[in-house]
Structures are given as structure tokens and as C-alpha cells.
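**User:** My hope is that you can spare some time for a protein that puzzles me. I have put the entry right below:
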Amino acid sequence: MRLSWIEIRDFRNYHEASLQVPPGLIVVIGPNAQGKTNLLEAMYYLCTLESPRVSSDLPLVRSVTFSPGGGGQPPASLSPGPSSAFLRGEAESSGGRALIEVEVRGGGQNRVQVNRSPVRRKRDLRRHVRAVFCGPDDLRIVQGEPDDRRRFIDECVRTLWPAKEGTASAYERALRQRNRLLKDWPGPAAPPGLEGWDAELVGHGAALTSVRAGAVAEIAGRASQEFQRLSGQTAEALGVEYRPSVEPAGTETLEAAFRRRLDERSADELIRRTTLVGPHRDDLGLRVQGLTARGFASHGEAWGAALSLRLALGRAVASELGEDPVVFLDDPFSALDPERRRRLAAGLGGRGQVLIAIPDESQLPEETATVWCVREGQVAAA
């Protein structure tokens, strides 16, 4: 699975770019703030219809430009920026080729076509191409709050099994409705209709718990192997464990455990006017050398753990599909010592199409087939 070419217009700092994308390892080199990450982001967006950096599409559309005034005077004119960015490219997989065209609008609904047919759901695009992105923001998975780790688990779910993408949103809808009912009811007893929303919460919550557990099971062992390969020491293990809010006891079903926990916390929920049980309180346990990664891992260990989780997701997708996803690694070497840099670079082969962004040639892997140089939103072959 790979991208074979991409055309970019008015995306971030790119006015216009057209690139043939070869298979294998591709290294993007350039100083800071020149467009390396923006290029990887554009390619990832084409594959997934979402940015790994921002939740809104507005920052993705090229900004307003100024015409300078003379003699140190204020700008003579203000040129409105474009209202949309455009991405176009072709993905190849064992299932064939797919022409993907995306109009990224600063406001309103984006327009997406695959092979000239409209696409309205992200999961429909994932039938043609899968991608994994790892960047500095992924340190939040290790060092951030539980909601950062829940977002990562849900990303694993939709990357591995696009058809199950709606599981999390269905639970969130039930949770919002139940919370609204609890918040708006003025009485001390349970509000009328709560039992109905309990049933919705239990059904969708059990489904989400099950699919999250499956996703973590797919990446846990692989992440530990990636971390050991990166460190070169089997003793430096990365432990990955799903910690659900609801766990069955003995032969109890997940649904029965969910109902039991709701009954146990019902008095507290009426006092606090919010739902205290369910997957919105899940977490992902991460341990490095037996210690909690969030509190005790060094910066290098935390980055190694985040990187290992992403690489493990790539391996899990490859196992699921029988072919590697497209992998994007933004500045993967900077937080690593020289030996770990060497080990990571040596392990990038055999993963399909991998694109990495680095700030200078000192981090260039030895086995690099293609090098692109980026400066001021322009890409040139080295």
C-alpha cells in the first residue's frame, strides 16, 4: 500500500506542489518552519481526511498574504487568502488504485471524491488506504492525561477496523444525553427516563469497551517488541495494558458488570449530576522498566514509548490487511541518543512506504532511497 503521487494547492504554506512518491523510505530534510511537517500532514490528510495536528480544518488553508508598503509604511494592500485547500493523489494497494480528491474548506463541509464518486464518511476512504502518523505531539499519549490515551486507542480502532469507527461516537451520544438528563433534573431522586438511557449507555459502552480491548491486544505485544528493538536491551520492556472503567467479575458478562457499576455509583451520580461509569473513564496503562511511564520515564524513554506504540499500530494494520500502511514519522530522531537513532534507522526498512521528516543531513539514515529538500514551501529532490 502506498501513495504514488500527490498534488497540493493552498495547503498550509504550500501554494502549489506536485510530487511523484516512490515506494520505500523517503526522507524530507529542511530547516524548521519551512514546510516539512506540513508536507507530511498533507499526505496523511489525503489518506485519512483528518489532520494529526489540529482538530479544525481552518488552519490547513493557506493564510492571508500582505503586500508591503514602501518606506517602512504599513502594508499597502491586504490580499484575501484562498477559501479552500486542494489535495489530489493516487493510492495503490492490493485492491487496486484509487484516485483521491479533497477540497479542504476553511468553513463548511469538505468535498471528497474517490475515483470521481463522492465520499461522505472517512471509513469509506480507509477501504482504499490506511496511514499511521507519529509526531512530537504523541508524547501526550505517554505523559498526558487519560483522554489523550483514550483518543489514541480509538484511533487504533478506526485504523484497524474502519467499520467499527462509529462505536465511539454512538457511546458519546448516549453519554451526552444521559448527562444532560442528570444535570437538568432538579429533584433528589433519579430523573424519569434514566433507565432508558442506562440501557443505551450499557449497550454502546459494552461495545466500545470490547473493541478497545481488542485494539490494545493487537498493539501491546508489538509495542513491547518495538521498544526492545529500539533500546537493544530485552530488560527495557514497555508494558501496555488496557484499563477499562468496567471489568466483569468471574463469569459476569460485560453488560451485567456495567449495570452493577451504575447501581453502585447511582447515589454519587445524582449528587454530582454526571455519569461516573463507562469508557469515558478508561485509561491505557504504560510502564517502562516496570515503572509508570507518565511519572518516571525520561524524555527519551517517553518518546521511545510513543514511537513504539505508533510503529506497533503500523505492524498491527499490516497483519490485519496483509500489507503495510503508509507510515509518516515527523522528527523521530531528535529525542533519541545516537545508538537509538541508529537502531531506529536500521529498523525502518521492510515497513512499506515510510516518510520521515528531519531537520538536517546529520540524521539521514544510511539506507535512504529518496531525499526531498524543503524550503519555504518548495520541494526539490536532493
